[in-house]
Write a structure and sequence with these properties.
Helix content is 78%, strand content 0%. Helix 2 packs antiparallel against helix 3 and helix 6 packs across helix 8. The chain has 181 residues and is an all-alpha fold. It has two domains: 95 residues, Rna Polymerase Sigma Factor, Chain: A (Orthogonal Bundle); 56 residues, Orthogonal Bundle (Arc Repressor Mutant, subunit A).
Length: 181
């Protein structure tokens, strides 16, 4: 924690090495957290870049995080995701998958993969916001339960219950889809 505060102080001073260190240290985990929620690599990259742009903007505006960099980045990533989905609802367009023509996989396999990803995305959207956040933090961001609880302001037991219920809900829906298919 002490090292993070030192790094944060260097970031607030616009130290280029500190900014690069923050990017290198947190980019992958922020990307995984976002990719777990959007399920599209290009969009995940764009949204992850937006998180770091907002950090830079906050530093320049003197509104940078004061105590915790990781928690602040998670909060911004969560906010960026919410904005993304609000905008997506307004725009409501069909995503064209440019990666379909490929010699590595058959067309049938590529289509099956796309449909599976879209199905997983639909299953995730059917969960509560808290359940989605727990799964994204645990499996996308790679946080242990204790950190997820601290980040979300919940008890460890509550996080474990949210995770168990989310996984059970997804499993149940997958079973129902298998029966209906």
């Amino acid at each position: 924690m002490h090292d993070e505060i030192k790094l944060l102080n260097r970031v607030r001073a616009l130290d280029q090495d500190a900014l690069a260190e923050v990017h290198n240290k947190y980019y992958t985990s922020i990307y995984r957290y976002i990719a777990f929620r959007v399920n599209d690599s290009q969009t995940a990259e764009d949204l992850t870049s937006e998180v770091f742009l907002r950090l830079l903007s906050a530093v320049r505006d003197k509104s940078a995080p004061q105590k915790t960099l990781r928690g602040w980045l998670y909060g911004v990533a969560s906010h960026v995701l919410k904005e993304h989905y609000r905008k997506k609802k307004r725009d409501s367009f069909t995503i064209l998958h440019e990666d379909i023509p490929s010699a590595e996989q058959s067309l049938d396999q590529q289509i099956a993969d796309i449909m599976q990803n879209e199905n997983l995305q639909a299953l995730m959207k059917s969960l509560t916001d808290d359940q989605q956040n727990v799964l994204a933090l645990r499996f996308g961001f790679g946080m242990p339960i204790q950190e997820v609880a601290h980040t979300m302001g919940k008890s460890e037991g509550s996080v474990k219950m949210l995770q168990a219920r989310a996984i059970a809900a997804i499993s149940q829906r997958i079973m129902l889809q298998g029966v209906l298919a």
